[in-house]
Amino acid sequence: MTLPNTNIAGYLNYNYGQSTVQNYDDTKKAHERFQSLLLDLQFLKSCRSKDIIPKFLIFKTANNNLSSSSVYKDCQRRLLNVEINSKYRELNFYKNNYMFFLDELKKTIPENVLQHVSEYIKNRSDAVLFAKEKNLKEKMEAFEIYDDKIYRVDRNIVKNLSSRILTDEEIDCLAHGLDFGLIPKNVDDMDIISNIENFFSRVTDIFENHKKIASELKDNDKFIAADVRVLNTKELSLASSLRSITDSFRSQAHQFEKKQNRITIEQQNYRNILTNLRKDKLITIARPDKGRGIVILNKADYLSKIHTMLNDSSKFQCLTEDPTISRETKLRNLLNRLFNDGHISEAFRNRARSTGSLPGRLYGLPKTHKKDVPLRPVLSAIGTFNYGLAKSLTPILSTIIKKHNTIRDSFSFVKELLALPKSMSKYKMVSFDIASLYTNVPLNETIDIILEHLYDGDITPPVMDRKDMKKLLILATQNSHFLFDGKLYDQIDGVSMGSPLAPLLAEIFLQNFEKKYLSSLETMGIFYWKRFVDDTFVLIDSTSSVKDICNTLSQFHKSIKFTCEEEDRYTNKLPFLDVLVQRKPDEGFHTRIYRKPTFTGHITKWDSFVPKNYKYSALSTMVYRAIKICSSYDLLHRELNSIRSIARRNGYPSSLLNSIIRRQLDLLYTAPKPILPPPLTNDTVVFRVPYFGPLSQIYAKRITSTINKNYPLKQIRVILDVTERIGNSFTLKDPIPENMQSGVVYEATCPDCNMKYIGKTYRHYKTRIHEHLNDQKNDLCLKKIITKPISKKKNKKSILKPIIEQKGPVTRSQT
Asked: Residues 565-619: pLDDT tens digits?
């Protein structure tokens, strides 16, 4: 039977009755209203993201001066939020109606007829809504926002490689990006208080001052408890001021919390979506290895790919016991011996030793640009037993690094390339890349190179013996264990993944490699050689064979293998780092910005709840790079247009980008400001503030101003913490086992008298429990230990409060 394309209602009435026609009409109206509301929401959200007030929210007041006040503007913004939430409620209502009437149609008409009717309804609504979409676009143009289309998220940045079928709402939510800031739902008072208390102690150096006061009291046969701090008059006055300012901020933050909980239905929808995705244990959500975006994988596939890598017995070994404490103790004993022998300073020992260290945690990032989507292993080594040692050795090893054949960044590369004589442009461009550099650096050979430079070179050797330095280097780069999927592994080959020394060791090895073989490069036809880590830009004789040169370089050392890429034979273009270089023989080189195929165009969204300076930096950084890298005005003009397109797709007002471009160009062509003398002190103190909008910035300014009056030599660095992001809902790292947690607050309760003892320790929880168990021998016995946590803080090192039941009194011991 041929289905009609016009009189659908008549066809349904003739074949299925009047009730079916009524369901058809209801379905059609609900669908059209639903699609119309979607356009309304996109328009209103676009207005909100660009801080534009629609005309229907411009109202008159008795006092005309009020229209320019902040209260009037705030009222308009709140009304806009209320209107958006109202549209969301109406949208959900008509969506449910549409699904209901569609289900009713399914009961009365066949599947093929239903499909035909659905397509007809969709096509008809598209035609009807086209005029509305055009009208909304004209409204935007009337606001002088030169957008090509109404701002909406780009669903293409979400790569779903899992078996789960995502809804449009889930894709739209994830398409905002893992870094998208959500409006905080709750105010964490303890976080605010602990931040200001820690900041106060750092600014006043209260612990150092306390030692002096305690020593003076001890000389006078007076003592104070170890957990009591004595403040002088200046410190008491500062503490009072900081408390008053912080209490005011907390009050404002709670008012912000109440207001947002009333008007942010959209954000609540996001949270519900993220909660449902997080509960699905069959999928893993991660960022891609290259570019910005979101990748959804089957959890089984993710684990299988990592386990396949870990099953390589030549590189990894599965451990049956946790070596964290034993390795931490070994390092501490070595540092104490070196300190007692006078070979290291107290500051070095304190930086290098660890207390309550954790195993590293391995995870993988999907390489979506490669076949079968392999995973790049990433090891989070922060907090491991040798992380502080590696950071402490960095200044010592940095003295070995020379800058002869290396480039610092893209800017220095372009500057040096454009300064070359034009005659150099007759040579062919090639880039060489070292395959898997970090995992192939020969560790023992590199350590020998370091020791030779430190003890046999021209520089003054370290105070410590050569063999002790070698022990420190081995401890810092080997013996690194990590956690994955609940199991512990040891890396038994190569430089430890995630070690802060890995880039430095690779650079030292490569510089030694170049020192040995650079003299033979010219005989191979190489006339220019500049390297950035493992990528090298080379100019060679046009008659030389690139493959022969690559093979020769790969034969110099068994651990280093090179790959190569030649310039395009037709355009003479070659990408290097983020620069696209074009060679024009005997005329010189031209450079412009290069973006890899993995670039998604995704940056911080304009409507992301993050500080405005973060968004400003997202654009100003791109503009600055364009000005510094583009070698001609024509190339710069093209790049600025590309940046405009990226900004529009992410919801940024055109006026903001234009102002940034003007400012950057003004800075380029204005005389540089005189160089200010360096500050009298480099003592910088970090102050972390949870971000609740402008009130957090005002709070930070008030605190900074107060500190500057009392401690003018202190440099304050404010960090506005975005407490809730989309990415916070998903983690790839294993949780640390409870007994290996450090920074623990625990409670001991006497079962006989119900008295409680609350203790804390910066060491491992199981170490402190073991000490309590040893107290049993002295009749300070613990009857039972319960490791149930009382509370945990998200996104930070978890602070557990295990309940410890005890028998008899327990005195506080040193932790």
From this structure: 999 999 999 999 999 999 998 899 999 999 998 898 999 999 899 999 999 999 9
Locate all alpha helices (DSSP H) within 420-537, ordered by sequence. 437-440, 443-456, 466-477, 502-517
Read off the pTM.
0.76
**Residue 812 to residue 759: CA distance in whole angstroms:** 7
Residue 119, pLDDT score? 82
Q: Is the pLDDT of residue 24 over 50?
A: yes
Question: Pick from 84, 93, 114, 80: which is nearest to 34 by CA?
Answer: 93
β-pairing, 684-690 vs 715-721, is: parallel
Dig out the tokens for 437 from the structure.
Answer: 């550099």
Contacts for 612-619 with beta carbons within 8 Å, 24 or more apart? Answer: 615/652, 616/656, 616/660, 619/643, 619/647, 619/652, 619/656, 619/657, 619/660
Comparing C-alpha atoms, which of 618, 612, 619 is closest to residue 696?
A: 612
Q: What is the token pair recorded at 632?
A: 């001609």
Q: Mean per-residue pLDDT for 442-461?
A: 88
- The mean pLDDT of 493-521, rounded to a whole number, is 85
Over residues 337-366, the mean pLDDT reads: 91
Q: Average pLDDT, stretch 787-798? A: 41
The per-residue pLDDT for range 374-423, each reduced to its tens digit, is: 998 888 988 899 999 999 999 999 888 888 889 999 999 999 999 999 99
Cβ-in-10-Å burial (0-12, 13-18, 19+) of 372 comes to exposed
Report, as an integer, the average pLDDT of 683-698.
92
| Residue 787 banded pLDDT, cuts 50, 70, 90 | very low
Judged against a pLDDT cut of 80, whether residue 708 lies above it is answered with yes
Residues 6+ apart with CB under 8 A from 226: 814
DSSP 715: E
Q: What is the mean pLDDT of residues 331-352?
A: 93
Contact in structure between 129 and 36 (CB atoms under 8 Å): yes
CA–CA distances in Å: residue 385 to residues 113, 317, 332, 362: 68, 19, 10, 16
| Range 31-64 burial, b when 16+ CB lie within 10 A, else e | bbbbbbbbebbbbbbbbbbbebbbeeeeeeeeee
Q: How far is CA 449 from the centre of its chain?
A: 35
Exposed / middle / buried, residue 326 (Cβ in 10 Å: 0-12, 13-18, 19+): exposed
Q: For 552-590, give one letter per residue: b (16+ CB within 10 A) or e.
A: ebbeebebbbbebbebeeeebebebbebbbbbeeeebbb
Is residue 706 within 8 Å of 241, Cβ to Cβ? yes
* Both structure tokens of 627: 């000005």
The runs of H, that is alpha helices, within 360-431 are 387-398, 410-418
793: left (phi over 0), alpha (psi -120 to 50) or beta: beta
Q: Residue 438 has which token pair? A: 């970090």
CA 72/CA 55 separation, integer angstroms: 14
45 and 608 in contact (C-beta within 8 Å)? no
Tokens read off for 25: 């009409």
Look at the chain and count its residues.
815
The alpha helices in 518-632, defined as continuous H runs, are: 546-555, 612-629
In this structure, how many other beta carbons lie within 10 angstroms of the beta carbon of residue 634? 11
List pLDDT tens digits, range 165-194: 999 889 999 999 999 999 998 999 999 999
CB-count burial class (<10 Å; 0-12, 13-18, 19+) for 129: middle
Of 205, 227, 223, 202, nearest to 214 (Cα)? Answer: 223
